[in-house]
Design goal:
With about 90 residues, the protein is mainly beta. It has a domain of about 55 residues. It is about 10% helix and about 25% strand. It contains one helix and five strands. Strands 4-3-2-1-5 form a five-stranded antiparallel β-sheet, covered by helices on one side. The longest helix has 9 residues. It is rod-shaped, with a radius of gyration of 30 Å. The chain binds zinc ion. Zinc ion binds next to loops.
Length: about 90
């Protein structure tokens, strides 16, 4: 899976707005075209959380979660047929 754009934040070095991407491992990364700095943050770290706060998320409409299919109410369980008396056919 390729990296996907997550949003933008200020470059830590020059404050230019840089695009932050996230990969399949949830690792954030950026590369600044202005000062050529780059970096990444791995999830679960304090630095990662700090980046997340700084990132302005893209406003692209997120795919709306599909509503969960409404389950049909379960039909009442059929009553078990009354057991026929054993041997009734044989008299
Ligand atoms: Zn920069």
């Amino acid at each position: 899976m390729a990296k996907v754009n997550l949003g933008k934040m200020d470059c830590p070095d020059c404050t230019e707005r840089v695009r932050v991407k996230i990969n399949e491992h949830k690792t954030l990364s950026y590369r600044c075209d202005e000062c050529d700095s780059n970096g990444y943050r791995q999830p679960g770290t304090a630095a990662y959380a700090a980046w997340e706060k700084k990132i302005t998320r893209d406003t692209a409409p997120a795919p709306a979660p599909k509503p969960a299919p409404v389950a049909d109410p379960a039909p009442p369980a059929p009553k078990p047929a009354p057991a026929k008396p054993a041997g009734s056919l044989l008299g």
